[in-house]
Specification:
It is a single chain. This protein is of the alpha+beta class. It is 45% helix and 18% strand. It has a 4-stranded antiparallel β-sheet, with helices on one face. It is globular, with a radius of gyration of 13 Å. The structure holds 7,8-dihydrobiopterin. It comes from Coemansia asiatica.
Length: 104
């Protein structure tokens, strides 16, 4: 059963992702979700990044909401099963940050 992030989780695990050093994710207005836009050198690098994220998402059975045009990838993370942010979103965002480092 997936549950929403606790206040402690939000402080300890979500906070760092929202910080500039941790990636600079933003909270989505009106939704318990986080979003971030990535820009790469070109489409190939953007798609390599998306491939890495897709493989992780499939392995986790937890999928991003995303939009890609050329070198830009806009990602929103939230958990449908609990209508909000869960530890799965933290885990996927952490992978996304690592994948972005490798693709840039
Ligand atoms: N992806 N973001 C997100 N949230 C979910 O709740 C979710 C998912 N991918 C697959 C998934 N849930 C399945 O576990 C359920 O649809 C059965």
């Amino acid at each position: 059963m997936v549950t929403k992030l606790s206040d402690t989780d939000r402080e300890q695990n979500l906070g760092p992702l929202l910080s500039a050093q941790g990636g600079g994710w933003s909270l989505v207005d009106g939704r318990d979700a986080i979003k971030k836009t990535f820009r790469f050198a070109d489409f190939n690098q953007a798609f390599a990044f998306m491939t890495s994220v897709a493989l992780k998402a499939e392995k986790m059975d937890h999928h991003p909401e995303w939009f890609n045009v050329y070198n830009r990838v806009e990602i929103t993370l939230s958990t449908h099963d609990c209508q909000g942010l869960s530890t799965r979103d933290i885990e996927l965002a952490t992978h996304i940050e690592q994948a972005a480092q490798k693709s840039s």
